[in-house]
Amino acid sequence: MEKTAKSIAVHSFKGGTGKSTITANTSVALALDGKRVCVMDMDLEGPGLHVIFNIDPSEVKYTLNDVLRGSASPEMAAISMNDRLGISKGEVYFCPASSRVDEMLKTLRTGFEVDSFSKAIARLKDHFKLDFLMIDTHPGIENDTLLAMGVCDHLLIVSRLDQQDIFGTGVIIELARVLEKPAHLALNMVPKGIRDSQITLLAKKIAANLNTELLAWLPFSDDILGSLSKSVFVLSMPKNPMSERFTKVAKAFEGFDQKR
């Protein structure tokens, strides 16, 4: 049976949930486990993954915006990250979104079709012989995020323990159900001072109320906050408990069923 890459859209209802941090770190954790991974920044209105990956926008020749407008092939916009990150296991490629306001507006005004985006994803999977394609989406419910949700095999919904955020997360999970996409919940930045056993019970209750699977809960981390999102945490602090948690999430991704 021919291997098929798993595509996972990482999404949140609100900004500031740590969605991009989770995307970058779990992607690199997958590579450290020998997997071939491409990370795509679909946050066309406020891209940030290039900061975590320490990519200077001035050195980027082609972006995802170019791919979506048909002026570049998907592989032309993929940057090999192994040497930059100093890793020798697996493979990591990164497709950045443009951080130029004029480019963002041009892409958003033009729009892009499901068919062309699906073909771009398929081409990336085939060209780089990927095991995983990770897509970091724009928060909320926008055309581009609906597109990413619609074409991916699985959705990871990231939420904080905030009533408004949890309510919005429920809306996104219902959208996933309509789109017939498996949705998995990650509660992030859980406040300190609460016992792990209490948080686990609360997290399971929230997931049950939302009728979805709890993939993980991650505590608030001063170490991650102190890193200012300027590096990949699992590489800069591999022995930190948060790195272990990111690795466990990546392992959970490996257990996801393939798209039928």
Describe this protein with a few key phrases:
260 residues, alpha/beta, 8-stranded mixed β-sheet, 12 helices, 8 strands
Task: Describe the 3D structure.
43% of the residues are buried. The two termini are 13 Å apart. This protein has a single domain (6-250), classed as 3-Layer(aba) Sandwich (Rossmann fold), CATH 3.40.50.300. It is built from 12 helices and 8 strands. Helix content is 43%, strand content 18%. With 260 residues, it is an alpha/beta fold. The chain has helices at 19-32, 49-52, 64-68, 82-85, 101-110, 114-127, 143-151, 163-178, 196-209, 222-226, 233-236, 241-254; strands at residues 6-11, 36-42, 79-80, 91-95, 132-137, 154-159, 183-190, 213-219. It has an 8-stranded mixed sheet, with helices on both faces.
